[in-house]
Amino acid sequence: MPTFDPETEIDSLLGEDPQRRLGPWHAEGLLVVGNHSRLPARCVKCNAPAAIPMQRRSFVWHPWVLYLLAPINLLIYAIAVALVRKKVEVTLGLCARHERWRAGLNATRWLGIGAGAVMFFVAPSAIWMLYALVVLLLALAFGHWFARPLVPVAVGEHYARFRGCTPAFLDGLPRYEP
Q: pLDDT by residue (tens digit) across 62-80?
């Protein structure tokens, strides 16, 4: 009686190269990858050789319309995001210059969070507490929007799409054919 080996069956359908089903590809100016994909050893921002070792990064995505819940009620927003968010891990590289740039943005974000927290707890009045909350929210938003090397546009069941790659990096990848 023959036994069923899923890896062999999948490899026979997709070819011998398991990377083939993980990507990366490019489509319409976006990077397309499967979960746990490994990008080429080039900087996604400038296409220069990437600093080794390359880093595995986790990206979380949820539909943008959920941001409309945040001003209404943060608790409802947090619950909705926890229920519908999708996560993808990608091993990517940045050159030394862009890695320093990202580290500087992260340091700025954490300094803003620390300054906002200190301001909040030593605030002499309610207006200063409000200023501290604004600083905290701005630092969190700054880190969320600017310190990420790639920005997930959509994360599906099998593939994720990202923006933020230079066209030179994308040109070196095969075209995505669904």
A: 888 888 888 888 899 889 9
Q: Which residues contact 94 (CB under 8 A, 6 or more apart)?
A: 43, 44, 45, 50, 51, 55, 102, 149
Decide if 148 contacts 106 (C-beta within 8 A).
no
**What is the distance in angstroms between the CA of the first residue and the CA of the last residue of the chain?**
35
The tens digit of pLDDT for each residue in 104-113 reads 888 888 888 8
- For residue 32 the two structure tokens come to 């397309």
Enter the tokens of residue 123: 């605030």
Q: Dihedral sign, CA of 168, 171, 172, 173?
A: positive
Q: In the chain, what's the furthest Cα-to-Cα distance?
A: 79
Both tokens of 40, joined, read 């080429």
Q: How many residues does the chain have?
A: 178
The amino acid that residue 170 corresponds to is L
> pTM score, two decimals?
0.71
